[in-house]
Amino acid sequence: MKLILLGAPGAGKGTQAEFISEKYNIPMVSTGNMIREALKNETELGLKAKSFMDAGQLVPDEVVIGIIKERLDNEDCKNGFILDGFPRTIPQAEALDKMGIELDKVVDFEVPDEAIIARMSGRRVCGACGSSYHTQFKRPEKDGVCDKCGAELVQRKDDHPDTVKERLRVYHEQTEPLKDYYAKTGKLRIVDGQNDIAAITKATFAALED
Ligand code: ADP
Ligand code: ADP
Ligand code: ZN
Fold first, then answer.
1. Around ion ligand 3, which residues have CB less than 5 A away?
2. Nearest atom in ligand 2 to 15's CA
3. Of 51, 18, 34, which is closest to residue 146 (Cα–Cα)?
4. What local confidence, expressed as pLDDT, does residue 118 receive?
5. Most CB within 10 Å of its CB: which of 3, 67, 116, 171?
6. What is the mean pLDDT of residues 105-125?
7. Catalytic site residue 156?
8. Is the CB of 31 under 6 A from ligand 1?
9. Rounded distance, CA 7 to CA 173, Å?
């Protein structure tokens, strides 16, 4: 199964991608996690991306398209994958089409901006494996520690309310047009992202199987 998860920053793409990945046994491909990993390792890519990320801006298309091409060529993506956070612009979607990728579904999680701002302040992510938690809505078994790998949970610098506002502006301007782009293919499914996590997972699985 080849999937794209769309939605505003903080809409719950990463959270749902983890559940889909387990159920269908396909890898989740998160450009955000890949870029943060590059940053941590101080690679050329990481250094290039840092200023954009910190300012809540998108990293240039050619940079992300390059990392996605390389990632999807990997053997573990042969039977499918979940794209979380890519594409985020029309040129990125066009690049995916040019790669000859046949998508099964595009799931869009709809959450109003006001709810996003509140949600992001409680987000905590694993510094090692990228898993995402929430101080209120998705607490780890042990405070501050990742359930999956035991590493420390941290707050992302770009989850500060001012940066979140800019990311939402960028989302509406550059990413939201992708809904129309994929609606035209008949593969778009809309999921209400305002329910509790379990209800959204149920709706998502239903959308994938219709
Ligand atoms: P969220 O889903 O909370 O918005 P991500 O972890 O997906 O966060 O992305 C964090 C940041 O990484 C973005 O604000 C942007 O700077 C960069 N980024 C991730 N994916 C892309 C992409 N497809 N195109 C451009 N920039 C990206
Ligand atoms: P995205 O990948 O779209 O940026 P995440 O999956 O990281 O979003 O979710 C953003 C934050 O909101 C995380 O802290 C996550 O635990 C929490 N979250 C995810 N889904 C829900 C939900 N349905 N209700 C409340 N909080 C949620
Ligand atoms: Zn972890």
1. 126, 128-129, 131, 146, 148-149, 151
2. 6
3. 18
4. 86
5. 3
6. 95
7. yes
8. yes
9. 13
Is position 88 annotated as part of the catalytic site? yes
Show me where the domains of the chain are located: 2-26+79-111+165-209
Give per-residue pLDDT as tens, 146-190.
999 999 999 999 999 999 999 999 999 999 999 999 999 999 999
Determine whether the shortest distance from the Cβ of 88 to ligand 2 is under 6 A. Answer: no
Catalytic residue among 2, 105, 119, 123, which?
Answer: 123
E strand intervals along the chain? 2-7, 28-30, 81-84, 105-110, 123-126, 132-134, 153-154, 188-192
Q: Would you say 3 and 81 are in contact if contact means Cβ atoms under 8 Å apart?
A: yes
Whole-number percent of the chain with pLDDT over 90: 98
What's 2-26+79-111+165-209's CATH class?
A: alpha beta
In the block, residue with structure tokens 């992202």 = 193
Identify residue 73 by its one-letter amino acid code.
D
Which one from 2, 71, 88, 119 is the annotated catalytic residue? 88
